[in-house]
Specification:
Strand order of the largest sheet of chain B: 6-9-10-3-11-12
Number of helices of chain B: 17
Radius of gyration of chain B: 25 Å
Strand content of chain A: under 5%
Number of strands of chain B: 24
Structural class of chain B: alpha/beta
Oligomer: heterodimer
CATH topology of chain A: ABC transporter involved in vitamin B12 uptake, BtuC
Largest interface: A-B, 28 and 40 residues
Structural class of chain A: mainly alpha
CATH topology of the largest domain in chain B: Rossmann fold
Strand order of the largest sheet of chain A: 1-4
Shape of chain A: globular
Number of domains of chain B: 2
Mean pLDDT of chain B: 83
Helix content of chain A: over 70%
Helix content of chain B: 25-40%
Number of strands of chain A: 4
Low-confidence stretches of chain A: 1-11
Chain lengths: 322, 539
């Protein structure tokens, strides 16, 4: 009897505006930034500049993709920055066996971290923020012990190529990220796992009663997050040419969460905006680049970022409160 | 029905003053008229039972009296003066204490601290810890609680925590103590202590509002009773003037004398049970026990049979259904579907075996609000219609179209968000989620609650059809008519135990009311005579 109950009203009221802002605001903001920057400095649109921006944005983007899945289940993964450090510590250790075994070990490290964090959340029912906070602290310590306090140079051409080369004008790592983006988007939208993940984040008791494999899904998202963070770690090492676990990946968890939130994924779970997350990562990078270009002090830059985060969360909240 | 009687409580000769009066209070929530012109009186030194089924307005009334809600109209008088509490704290400070089911103290603080919170004994402006601990120990010993008062409150058992809450209420000079199902988490020994405390409070002239569904308790300690139904007061009298059968009838809105009306539900008559009674039942649950909830409950359902679970609120009906599908952790008991044992405490295992449950609380346990109608319907079936983890969209659309037609789900499109649908259509979506799994056993917990009349009849019709198709159905309903007319057999539960079973011609409202009102058996929790001997578990 209430089939007419669809609240999508007519006209451009405030609700609808916040709705649109939450859903598409990040794309509009990117376009606006590009337009403004191009007007101020025409070379902004050049391929060179785009390449520079992508080199910065891609590792965060990879981490943010995993983070978006975790947040979709109403969780959070603070360990991703430490996983990057762990990956960077593992690479020089196993580089003697060749680049691919070293990369494989780095990915295994991420998998192990996800296994620990995911098990704590799914089986021991530790709150995600606590479980992954413990990992974040512990793993970085472990990584520094593995590597020693000083950064080690990494000269392997394969790993350096992953971090520095360009294919068809764009960074190799950007192509890899595009593949990851497509895969994650497909997983969320088209697979059983993706639908289960969304349902669990939206209403966990109902999902459990519907017989969904709640624990398996939770464990899996943390595994994916760990692996993606480790991949980001490999790219960071390749780009920097060093393995520096004491400094690599610092604040990446926060950058990733920012990208997810700015991209329109609610922290309350039940919805994953994959493309939005990628756009969020790009947007935050563009903001930073713009401000640097115009010689805004980094302290102001941080404050502006804070405003953006609050605005994004506010828009998302407006949608949830409907 | 009797006229309201006032001031005839046991202690009325000594204390005639009315400590709390609620006069003509109404309270509306969006879509619900929770209280309509409710009057309620509490004398000093009186234990006043407040009873009613789900949605009768008990908790709303309590919340109005304790300052959680403000009434839309009507008056609240306390100690003879009109009052208006802006927040719960004001009511507490005035002397109205509430002891909720979940104890509302601070779990991580010490017992002594909790007892003296906000009125700690002081010396030189500092909290006098030694004195506080000494006094706390003394006070609690009075309530039968012997504990180290420096331990955090949450390390105590629930019963002891409740005693601390009561002791605190009394210490802060409460004149009114509201007890909301105070015994639901207590052991028998603790219940006895609680009753002693209640007696002591009564003797001290404190008015007690006692909310409980356990008839035995009400008759044991209450002086007067007020019955609420659908937001109205339907009965007030001294407890002794109303017998059990009458009380149950009043709560359920049934007149014990003339319940033999038929035909307002959409159920047909008996379902032909296809196989003989000796055939293997489709569902055989034996000796299910869940701590503090149900003990030794057994249910059998044959093909094409609808078995009702009868009982008052808190009797353990939903818990039994949840225990069957593994959603509630059982301490003992076995569940077999078609003679094959189902792994305990695993919902996925129960679903694979073919036993599914429609939960009572559609909003919090049923629908996934932000997913579409389509996604909600196929949620549980996803693994079955996927290949290599990929959802087969064509198969999905086919299933969704079929059930939208068959159950007449009215949605703008399958892609509409399910939270935008009416309650009845949401319920049909939930039914569709289970039916597309081709279950063998369907457990329905309040399938028609909160849905409009038309949808209700439709859902009842569907239940009938399903049983006719050979499904084994377990039906839980607080709507007596629905339960009686829908069921071929009714298993009666009381306080978590099975107290009887109605079969054949005995499935009538008078028989059910009589079973619900029956006095307690001499020994606690004996296995009912008519069920087969079940393996007794740890409880």
């Amino acid at each position: 009897m209430t089939t007419e109950a669809s609240p999508r009203g007519i006209g451009f009221d405030r609700d609808r505006l916040t709705h649109l802002l939450a859903d598409y605001g990040v794309y509009a903001a990117i376009v606006a930034l590009v337009v403004v920057n191009t007007a101020l400095a025409p070379h902004f649109l050049s391929l060179d500049n785009l390449r520079v921006q992508l080199f910065q944005a891609v590792p965060v983007l990879l981490v943010a993709l995993g983070m978006a899945l975790v947040i979709g289940t109403e969780g959070i993964d603070l360990s991703v920055g430490a996983v990057i450090a762990l990956a960077s510590a593992l690479i020089p250790l196993y580089l003697g066996y060749g680049p691919w075994p070293a990369i494989g070990m780095a990915v295994l490290g991420g998998l192990a971290s996800g296994l620990v964090g995911g098990s704590l959340v799914a089986f021991a029912r530790v709150q995600p923020i606590v479980a992954t906070l413990a990992l974040m602290i512990g793993l970085r310590g472990f990584a520094v012990i593995l590597n020693g306090a000083t950064a080690k140079p990494v000269n392997d051409p394969t790993i350096l190529a992953l971090g520095l080369d360009s294919w068809f004008g764009l960074p190799a790592m950007a192509w890899l990220a595009a593949v990851a983006l497509a895969v994650v988007a497909f997983v969320v939208r088209r697979t059983t796992f993706g639908r289960q993940l969304t349902a669990i984040g939206d209403n966990r008791p109902a999902s459990a009663l519907a017989g969904l494999p709640v624990r398996r899904v939770l464990l899996t998202v943390y595994l994916i997050s760990g692996v993606l963070a480790a991949c980001a770690g490999v790219l960071v090492v390749g780009h920097g040419g060093y393995a520096d676990p004491a400094n690599y990946g610092l604040d990446y968890e926060l950058a990733a969460i920012t990208a997810v939130v700015v991209g329109g994924t609610p922290l309350s779970g039940g919805k994953v905006r994959v493309l939005g997350t990628a756009a969020g990562a790009l947007f935050m990078q563009l903001i930073e680049a713009t401000l640097i270009q115009h010689n805004v002090k980094s302290s102001y830059e941080q404050m502006i970022e804070a405003v953006i985060i609050v605005a994004a969360v506010y828009a998302a909240r407006g949608r949830a409160a409907r | 029905m009797r006229e309201p009687v006032s001031g005839t409580g046991r202690q009325s000769d000594q204390y005639h003053s009315q400590v709390l009066q609620v006069r003509g209070v109404s309270k509306r929530f969006p879509g619900v008229h929770a209280l309509r012109e409710v009057d309620f009186e509490l004398n000093a030194g009186e234990v006043h039972a407040l009873v009613g089924e789900n949605g009768a307005g008990k908790s709303t009334l309590i919340k109005v009296a304790t300052g959680v809600y403000r009434p839309d109209s009507g008056e609240l008088r306390y100690l003879g003066r009109p009052v208006s509490f802006a927040r719960p704290l004001d009511a507490q400070l005035a002397g109205i204490s509430t002891i909720y089911q979940e104890v509302n103290l601070i779990p991580l603080m010490s017992v002594a601290r909790n007892l003296f919170l906000n009125r700690e004994p002081r010396r030189f402006g500092l909290v006098d810890g030694a004195r506080m601990r000494r006094e706390a120990t003394d006070i609690l010993r009075d309530y039968g609680v012997e504990v180290n008062v420096t331990r955090p409150l949450r390390s105590l058992g629930l019963g002891a925590q409740q005693m601390v809450a009561i002791a605190r209420a009394v210490q802060i000079d409460a004149r009114v103590v509201v007890m909301d199902e105070p015994t639901s988490s207590l052991e028998q020994r603790e219940v006895e202590t609680l009753f002693e405390v209640v007696d002591r409070l009564r003797a001290a002239g404190i008015g007690i509002v006692y909310v409980s569904h356990r008839l035995d308790e009400l008759y044991r300690i209450c002086d007067r009773v007020t019955v609420l139904r659908d937001g109205r007061v339907v009965h007030v009298s001294p407890m002794a003037d109303v017998d059990r059968l009458e009380l149950v009838s009043l709560m359920l809105g049934r007149n014990a004398a003339d319940v033999r009306r038929h035909g307002t539900t959409a159920f047909g008559t008996e379902h032909a049970v296809r196989e003989g009674a000796d055939a293997t039942p489709v569902l055989r649950a034996r000796g299910l026990s869940v701590r503090h909830r149900i003990s030794d409950v057994s249910v059998q359902v044959h093909r094409g049979e609808v078995v009702g679970l009868g009982g008052l609120l808190g009797a353990g009906r939903s818990e039994t259904a949840k225990a069957v599908v593994g959603a509630l952790h059982t301490e003992s008991g076995t569940v077999e579907v078609d003679g094959v044992p189902v792994r305990r405490n695993s919902t996925p295992a129960a679903i694979r075996a073919g036993a599914v449950m429609l939960p009572e609380d559609r909003k919090s346990e049923g629908i996934i609000p932000n997913l579409s109608v389509r996604e909600n319907i196929v949620l549980a079936a996803l693994p079955r219609i996927s290949r290599a983890g990929l959802v087969d969209r064509a198969k999905q659309d086919e299933i969704v179209r079929y059930f939208i037609d068959r159950l007449r789900i009215r949605a703008a499109s399958p892609e509409q968000r399910v939270s935008e649908l009416s309650g009845g259509n949401q319920q049909k979506v939930m039914l569709a989620r289970w039916l597309c799994l081709n279950p063998k056993v369907l457990l329905l917990d309040e399938p028609t609650r909160g849905i409009d009349v038309g949808a209700k009849a439709e859902v009842q019709g569907v239940i009938d059809e399903l049983a006719a198709d050979g499904l084994a159905v377990v039906l839980i309903s607080s709507d007596l008519e629905e339960l009686i007319e829908g069921s071929d057999r009714v298993v009666v539960l009381k306080d978590g135990s099975q107290v009887g079973e109605l079969t054949g011609a005995d499935v009538t409202e008078p028989a059910l009311l009589a079973a619900l009102a029956a006095a307690p058996p001499p020994a606690p929790g004996p296995p009912p005579a008519e069920s087969p001997p079940a393996p007794k578990g740890g409880a």
